[in-house]
Amino acid sequence: xxxxxxxxxxxxxxxxxxxxxxxxxxxxxxxxxxxxxxxxxxxxxxxxxxxxxxxxxxxxxxxxxxxxxxxxxxxxxxxxxxxxxxxxxxxxxxxxxxxxxxxxxxxxxxxxxxxxxxxxxxxxxxxxxxxxxxxxxxxxxxxxxxxxxxxxxxxxxxxxxxxxxxxxxxxxxx
Length: 174
Known about the structure:
A hairpin with a 3-residue loop joins strand 1 and strand 2. The protein has helices spanning 2-15, 86-92, 165-173, and strands at 20-26, 30-37, 39-41, 46-54, 68-79, 95-98, 104-110, 116-135, 141-159. The strands form two sheets. The chain has a five-stranded mixed sheet with strand order 3-9-8-5-6. A four-stranded antiparallel sheet has the order 1-2-4-7, with no helix packed on it. The protein is elongated. By secondary structure, the protein is α+β, with helices and mostly antiparallel strands.
């Protein structure tokens, strides 16, 4: 049974080889599109992006407003299987990309060094700090921090690059 499922996943990935694929995740709070090829070659560099729409946009769309400072980032760990434990994921994060705008998180120079199915296991952290936007226990004004964390996992299949001349030359020597 599991062999059939793995084989089916393999066929699906092979059919859609080297296309940039948008994976859309919607909830009551945001609209997220993870744009990255679903199949890549081993040891080659790829770029992608995360298109992001948040309810925090109603508070501010600027990432440089000092009165309503906003931080938007995607932290992730590349693994061979999906990670369900958020605490483990936060400890094991290996890379973080920061948003260019309130709508776009770029992904640069992503490489996979092993063949097979891999996963981006990550968390989008959208945070706003509103200066004097809260009331402290003593009644005075204080800064208010609002944070939203969204899990974002994406599968990528890594295949061997048969066009690599160094690979061809090593086969020809045999």
